[in-house]
């Protein structure tokens, strides 16, 4: 089985998610300290960042997978066609 290496995008998304989740926890600390309005704004911004990052990454990943499958299908089709020509 092939070991897939992590792409730059995957590493970037991982860091954005880690930082965003940490910032989300900080909003609870702000709310506990009485800064409720700032905590609400921070939470909304962080959640928007998380959702935007995940959706963008999913769309990119889907398109890449679809393209890889198309190329694999074309390669298989060409190899079958080449084998049939060799048999004739």
Question: TL;DR of this structure?
Answer:
With 88 residues, this protein is mostly helical.
Give the number of DSSP strands: 0
Biggest pleated-sheet summary: none
* Helix-strand topology string: HH
Domains counted in the coordinates: how many?
1
Shape: rod-shaped
Overall residue-averaged pLDDT value:
83
DSSP helix fraction: over 70%
Based on secondary structure, the structural category is: mainly alpha
What is the tally of helical segments?
2
**Rg for CA atoms:** 23 Å
Terminal residue distance: 35 Å
Q: How big a fraction of the residues is strand?
A: under 5%
Low-confidence stretches: none
How would you characterize this protein structure?
- This protein is an all-alpha fold.
- It has one domain (8-87).
- Helix content is 88%, strand content 0%.
- The chain contains 2 helices and no strands.
- It is rod-shaped, with a radius of gyration of 23 Å.
- The mean pLDDT is 83.
- The chain crosses the membrane at residues 12-30, 42-62.
- Keywords: Membrane, Transmembrane, Transmembrane helix.
- This is Holin.
Secondary structure elements and their pairing?
Elements: H1 8-32, H2 36-87
Helix pairs in contact: 1-2
Search tags:
88 residues, mainly alpha, 2 helices, rod-shaped
